[in-house]
Specification:
Number of strands: 0
Distance between the termini: 34 Å
Number of helices: 18
Strand content: under 5%
Helix content: over 70%
Radius of gyration: 23 Å
Largest sheet: none
């Protein structure tokens, strides 16, 4: 029996009732602890620079690694969940996150922070968040959409509280003691994981006859060839690797599905500039004379508005009026993000920066609510998990390199305005690329239908060019879905 199966044996199913709501509360806290945490790193940016005599580029590698690993560790988390279950993955992630931050308070160089706070804490946050979202798919069936919408408010809650707490602790006891306290706070992910008890038995590893490469070995034996034959062993290993890549990283979909291809490239390009305001807004405000406590408040304003706007945006975009058109809403939200950056360039006064945060937060709510909705529009649900694996890996690469490269530009020019110029360039160009490309693709598909040219690969998705099998409405949740939040 899979983890998503019923507890059964004459007892009532636990889905959508009782303990499921406690699991939802734990998921809200998890998202606040994991996805909300990186937003506060900008508060420590100036102190870390002075402590380690590091440049903007060197300092920005620390949050970049953390965010990139958090987003790109999905396939690894998938393997962990399938082998040991969601509860184990969440609790392991909590231990790693706490260990990473506790170790960070003893670092003697900025490069050591890359390993402790960047890699270890980022990987732990990835495990806790991804597995925490996955378990909601098992505990909720009828109210699954509502549960995910409520859980996503945890991100906004973290955005609101982490910067305020960070600035207070930094003023009172310095960054090293603050990181030590953060380690203890992140250990609460283990408590959240303990609440997420499994439904049914844990996932079992595949049986020997079902393992990849077993059929190849059987064929060898039937032909009188020993499976230990080196060339055949190498072929079996290559086949296994290809099957694993096909399962977790859908390169075939990327090559065949034009909609998925355009969207993945567009979002990957967008991520080069999307995270820049989160990393550099507080240092930019302090550099222009804004008091440190007020500068930290800017990130909290973004999070507070997100709490109310993001669920509303998600529910609105789910209306049937927007079916097949969500990509254009997404492109519009990305475009607004890019255009809002020019407000910072015009003036760095606190009142102007508050206005910027309000507009940016509204646009970010649209991006966060629509990112995976659009992906579901362009990819068949039976391949969604593997398509999302490649999607998150590629976006994590640009999330990793974007802030350090921009920091290098700031180091060369000594002008923080280039942060917002760079962010606007990537966001606006990505929005135009996706919007115009999907418009052209839609026109191409309409021309095909008008000319009655039979399609060899028909699809029920508006932008997909890959075959699709009809899915039952009561399809059980996938074994694991790696979801990130923007």
């Amino acid at each position: 029996m899979s983890q998503g199966g019923a507890a059964g044996r004459g007892t009532a199913k636990p889905q959508d009732q009782g303990w499921a709501w406690m699991v939802l509360v734990a998921a809200v806290v998890l998202q606040a602890l994991t996805l909300g945490f990186p937003c506060c790193i900008g508060v420590f940016f100036t102190d870390l620079q002075h402590e380690f005599h590091a440049s903007n580029s060197e300092t920005s590698w620390f949050p970049s690694i953390m965010v990139a690993v958090l987003h790109g560790g999905g396939p690894l988390c998938s393997v962990l969940v399938k082998r040991f279950g969601c509860r184990f993955a969440v609790m392991l992630g909590g231990l790693l996150s706490g260990l990473g931050m506790v170790s960070s308070c003893f670092c003697k160089s900025i490069s050591q922070l890359y390993l402790t706070a960047g890699l270890i804490t980022g990987l732990g946050s990835c495990f806790s968040f991804q597995a925490g979202v996955t378990v909601l798919g098992y505990y909720f069936v009828r109210w699954r959409t509502l549960a995910n919408a409520v859980a996503s408010t945890g991100v906004s809650l973290g955005f609101t509280l982490w910067p305020l707490l960070s600035q207070y602790l930094l003023d009172e006891m310095g960054w090293r003691n603050t990181f030590l306290i953060f380690g203890g706070i992140l250990l609460n992910c283990c408590v959240c994981g303990a609440i997420m008890r499994p439904i049914g038995s844990l996932p079992q590893p595949p049986k020997p006859e079902e393992q990849p490469g077993s059929r190849a070995e059987e064929a060898q034996l039937s032909n009188g060839v020993s499976p230990s034959h080196p060339p055949l062993q190498q072929h079996a290993r290559r086949t296994t690797c290809l099957q694993v890549l096909q399962k977790y990283l859908a390169f075939d979909i990327f090559c065949q599905n034009k909609g998925y291809q355009i969207y993945t490239i567009g979002v990957t390009w967008m991520m080069m500039g999307f995270a820049l305001p989160h990393v550099y807004l507080v240092p930019y405000a302090i550099h222009n004379g804004v008091e440190e406590r007020r500068a930290a408040l800017l990130i909290s304003v973004i999070g507070l508005i997100n709490i109310f706007i993001r669920p509303f945006t998600g529910l609105l975009s789910g209306h049937r009026v927007f079916t097949g058109r969500r990509i254009y809403l997404f492109s519009l939200a990305v475009l607004l993000c890019g255009l809002s950056n020019f407000i910072c360039i015009i003036s760095a006064e606190f009142r102007v920066l508050i206005l910027y945060c309000v507009i940016l937060s509204i646009a970010m709510s649209g991006v966060g609510a629509l990112t995976f909705q659009v992906l579901m529009d362009v990819v068949e649900m039976d391949r969604f998990s593997s398509a999302l694996g490649l999607f998150t890996i590629l976006e994590s690469i640009t999330l990793l390199v974007g802030p350090p490269l921009t920091g290098l530009l700031v180091d060369i020019t000594s002008d923080f305005c280039y942060v917002f110029y760079t962010s606007s360039f990537f966001l606006i160009s990505a929005a135009l690329f996706m919007g115009l490309s999907f418009c052209a693709l839609e026109k191409k598909n309409k021309l095909r239908e008008a000319s009655k040219v039979p399609l060899s690969n028909p699809s029920r998705y508006p932008y997909s060019e890959t075959p699709s099998d009809p899915q039952a409405e009561s399809q059980p949740p996938p074994a694991v879905v790696y979801i990130t939040s923007i």
